[in-house]
């Protein structure tokens, strides 16, 4: 059987470009997934791994659709090889049935991880630079006055948690966390 596998990282992203490419090939089944490639435990990928049999072919748009980390890509390629399943990556023109294809998949996996590491490094440097200029980032802190008001309302035992949340605009989680912190 010939399987196609498409993946995007978020629900908002569109699979159509990948699907258009895979439809040009005689895929018996195309599996789609909307989940980050940094997670190795992906439901549709796991389903694909259960379905494959010796002699099957998996076609992907690019190696980045299969996984983002070198380790995961190498493990997946080795898993497919151990099952006698061939992998074809359209963007990189790779076919794991050839010696050259096997070598190139390994090298490109390393390059994909290198690119990801560079992005992470630049992000860390940007955050450090922003902090040096006084920018903090992250989720804004809750208004302490609103939290104190919510705790007083809670202590009065006149209002339900829902009513307190509605009156103060703080979340239930924040209220419960502060109540718990107070007890400690």
From TrEMBL:
InterPro entries: Recombinase_CS, Resolv_N, Resolvase-like_N_sf, Resolvase_HTH_dom, SSR_resolvase. Residues 1-134 form the Resolvase/invertase-type recombinase catalytic domain. This is Recombinase family protein. Keywords: DNA integration, DNA recombination, DNA-binding. Belongs to the site-specific recombinase resolvase family. Pfam families: HTH_7, Resolvase. The active site is at 9 (o-(5'-phospho-dna)-serine intermediate). SUPFAM superfamilies: Resolvase-like (SSF53041).
């Amino acid at each position: 059987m010939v399987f196609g596998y498409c993946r995007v990282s978020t629900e908002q992203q569109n699979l159509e470009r990948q699907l258009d490419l895979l439809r040009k090939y005689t895929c018996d089944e195309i599996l789609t997934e909307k989940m980050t490639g940094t997670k190795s435990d992906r439901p549709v990928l796991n389903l694909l791994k259960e379905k494959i049999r010796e002699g099957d072919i998996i076609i992907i748009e690019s190696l980045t659709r299969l996984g983002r980390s070198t380790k995961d890509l190498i493990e997946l390629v080795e898993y497919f090889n151990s099952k006698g399943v061939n992998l074809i990556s359209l963007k990189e023109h790779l076919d794991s049935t050839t010696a050259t294809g096997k070598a190139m998949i390994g090298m490109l996996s390393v390059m994909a991880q290198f690119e990801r590491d560079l992005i992470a490094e630049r992000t860390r440097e940007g955050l450090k630079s922003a902090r040096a200029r006084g920018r903090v980032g992250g989720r804004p802190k809750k208004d302490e006055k609103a939290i104190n008001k919510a705790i007083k309302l809670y202590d009065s035992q006149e209002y339900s948690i829902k009513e307190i949340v509605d009156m103060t605009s703080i979340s239930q989680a924040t209220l419960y966390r502060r109540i718990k912190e107070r007890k400690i």
